[in-house]
Amino acid sequence: MPCCSSNFEITTTCSTRNFALVRSYGADHLFDYNNPKAVELIKSHTHDTIKLCVDCISTDSSSTFCAAVLAPGAIYSSIGMSHCPRDDVKTLQSIGYSFLGEPWEQMGHNFEASRKDFEYSVAFAELSEKLLAQGRITPHPVSLRKGGLAAIPEALNDLKAQKVSGEKIVVRVE
After folding, report:
1. How far apart are CA 1 and CA 7, in angstroms?
2. What pTM, to 2 d.p., does this model score?
3. Could you say which of 36, 70, 101, 173 would form a disulfide bridge with 118 (CB–CB 3.0 to 4.6 Å)?
């Protein structure tokens, strides 16, 4: 059964502690990325037909994982600098800095301003605002931290220690 109104059947990975949350967002099939047999299980379930992948982590290990489950000719979409390590898979990148329409430097590379990316980001923001207002997309639950600016180091330490999962940390600055 396709997820929501996207007409896609969503197969995804997450830790088991987030299965209920991810399912509530409309995922059809969930696999634990910590399971050593996850790639095998996904390929068996999908009959090796995954043609579109959005990598929301976009590290070397996540792109390698994605490459292992994709069918030939698939499209791999990264939110960062990661590329799919397979020649038969097309890599698309969405790097948030490009949405500002200004040049930037990252990891020793200089990037030019992109008018196209800026215009896309404006349209994306307008669409996102409408979908949020309609309740068709939902943000992560918020973990509200008190303590103002002084609470930020502890919140960052929690992120580094991987104590945060399935929620967005918000620190109220008063």
Report:
1. 9
2. 0.79
3. 101
- The amino acid at 87: D
Q: What is the mean pLDDT of each run of 10 residues along the chain (174 residues)?
A: 66 95 94 97 96 93 96 94 94 86 85 90 94 91 94 94 93 87
**CA dihedral sign of residues 48, 24, 126, 122:** negative
Cβ 19 vs Cβ 28: under 8 Å: no
Is residue 140 within 8 Å of 164, Cβ to Cβ? no
Neighbours of 139 (CB within 10 A): 9
Q: Could you tell me which of 148, 168, 147 has the C-alpha nearest to residue 158?
A: 168
Q: Which residues pair with 54 in a beta bridge?
A: 77
Residues in the chain: 174
Tell me whether strands 109-111 and 104-106 are parallel, antiparallel or unpaired: antiparallel
User: How far is residue 47's CA from residue 11's CA, in Å, rounded to a whole number?
Assistant: 12
- β-pairing, 11-14 with 29-32? parallel
